[in-house]
């Protein structure tokens, strides 16, 4: 699963990289510096967002009308915690 994460392209680049998993504390530090923030503040925020996504995606999927609660939505909700954990791990590197 980690290899699949590293081969995934992000919808926007983080520092100079689009591939997920290419970013480390150095890139997150560069983002923080450009924004005038501390690296710890940015990485803590990014981790908190990633940690909250599984619960939010489950709640959003549950709120869908029954005819939209498809197998695709169920697979998405099932896989979000895996991706979120990978993002948290990548941020902590």
Topology:
Layout: H1 2-7, E1 9-14, E2 17-19, H2 25-35, H3 39-62, H4 71-92
Antiparallel strand pairs: 1-2
Helix pairs in contact: 2-3, 3-4
Written description of the protein model:
The two termini are 17 Å apart. The chain has one domain (2-6, 19-92). 68% of the residues lie in helices and 10% in strands. Helix 2 crosses helix 3 and helix 3 packs antiparallel against helix 4. The model has no long low-confidence stretch (mean pLDDT 83). Strands 1-2 form a two-stranded antiparallel sheet. The chain has helices at residues 2-7, 25-35, 39-62, 71-92; strands at residues 9-14, 17-19. It has 93 residues and is mainly alpha-helical.
N- to C-terminal distance: 17 Å
- Count helical runs: 4
Strand order, main sheet: write it out: 1-2
Average the pLDDT over all residues and give the rounded result.
83
Tally of strands: 2
Give the oligomeric state: single chain
Hey, roughly how much beta strand do the residues contain? 5-15%
Low-confidence stretches: none
**What is the general shape?**
elongated
Biggest pleated-sheet summary: 2 strands, antiparallel
Keywords:
two-stranded antiparallel sheet; mainly alpha; single chain; 10% strand; 93 residues
Explain briefly what this protein structure is:
With 93 residues, the chain is mainly α. The chain has four helices and two strands; from the N terminus they run H-E-E-H-H-H. The chain has one domain.
